[in-house]
Amino acid sequence: MSEVVLKQAVSRQVVLSGSGLWTPEYKISNEELVNAYNNYADWYNEHHKADIDDGNISAKPHSSADFVQKASGIKQRYVYCKEGILDVNRMRPNIPTRGDNELSHQAEIAVNAATKALASANKSASDVDVVIVSCAYTQRSYPAIAIEVQAALGINGFAFDMLVACSAATFGMHRAYEMIAAGTANTVLVINPELVSPQVNYKDRDSHFIFGDVATATVFESANTVNSEHAFDVLSTKAVTKYSNNIRSNFGYMTHATDEDPYAADKLFHQEGRKVFKEVCPMAAEHITEHLTAHDLVPNDLRRWWLHQANINMNVLISKRLLGRDANKDEAPIVLDEYANTASAGSVIAFNLHHQDMNTGDYGILCSFGAGYSIGSLLVQKR
Ligand code: CO8
Hints:
Layout (H helix, E strand, L loop, with lengths): L1 H9 L3 E9 L3 E4 H18 L1 H5 L11 H8 L3 E4 L25 H16 L9 E6 L9 H9 L4 E6 L4 H15 L4 E8 L19 E9 L9 E10 L5 E2 L6 H4 L11 E2 L1 H21 L8 E6 L4 H12 L12 H4 L6 H8 L9 E8 L3 E9 L1
Parallel strand pairs: 4-5, 4-6, 11-12
Antiparallel strand pairs: 1-7, 1-8, 2-3, 6-7, 8-13, 9-10, 12-13
The structure holds octanoyl-coenzyme A.
Protein name: Beta-ketoacyl-ACP synthase III
Organism: Agaribacter marinus
Keywords: Acyltransferase, Transferase
């Protein structure tokens, strides 16, 4: 008897019925960022002249806006707080502290994106059973940001946070899919408040240009309650992880106990960018192939690819490997030129901005890849 019940429950069709995108008000061009970095490098070289001349340390070379655009495809990024980032004496955002009784910064941007997602799915707070906040960092461990958002929106049920770096969004969607398919929830709100600029090392030439802030949200629900024009059946989800130290941040609560410098470079985002590029691209291509094969589909059957937005050259390589040709921007939209790498939100921004033109029956895939390593995908079909 219980087996029959489970089978019935698992057969519930899960639908991606809405999405929301909140974009910060401030933007920083490559030129502005590179100019600030170069001022910092000049200051550093001047102040360490003796050690540099003695060969004890290396001088910091200049960054270049041309390099950034060519190596990454990024032209600008949005940030939650611009103040401080370009200040050679600070080189990090200057975000005001909020009291325990105020809405936290990250919850605020999560609420902004969630409100838009609920509107696009024609849902209200009372329809939602579960809130998942999934992103690369939460600004504190507890109480969960998701529970704060749940309270701010007036949602019943329960809420929790998830951290899976660049794949946090797709892995959060995966949880939503499973809960709805299993019948333990009917409507799940997945929010990705990617407030990453506080973890960027703006003094590091290799990575100072990579990231931007944003918040995205998606609504998943059972097919029997859908009331949205632009809804997609989720055909399945797929996830894989493989341990790698090539993208890492050592920031965490242990810093308090070890007396380490909380501002040390290893506490911030750092990576072996070349290795990441070489190792993650084939993993992502294989992952997508396997996901499609499980549905008797081939890459050319897809109308749209909402790929992770870390580096334009990665996306070009992955889609070329799969299609045997370059994907055009209509097939695989690029948003990182405007938004930069927004950790897990990149593929969701691409989805949010590029799905309303799709026709009933069209297939699309959302796919993230990044730190962990972690890869996550959702295969969807326009209803
Ligand atoms: N300006 C000018 N020259 C530069 C700069 C610069 N800013 N940086 C490097 N160079 C120089 C180097 O010194 C080198 O010179 P030389 O050849 O003389 O040694 C040359 O340019 C080439 O350097 P690289 O080999 O490092 O350059 P690449 O072509 O590999 O490009 C990239 C660097 C853009 C970083 C590229 O490797 C890349 O994008 N790789 C993939 C990385 C990636 O996808 N990472 C994902 C990380 S995001 C993630 O997983 C989420 C984590 C959680 C979020 C964290 C938020 C803070």
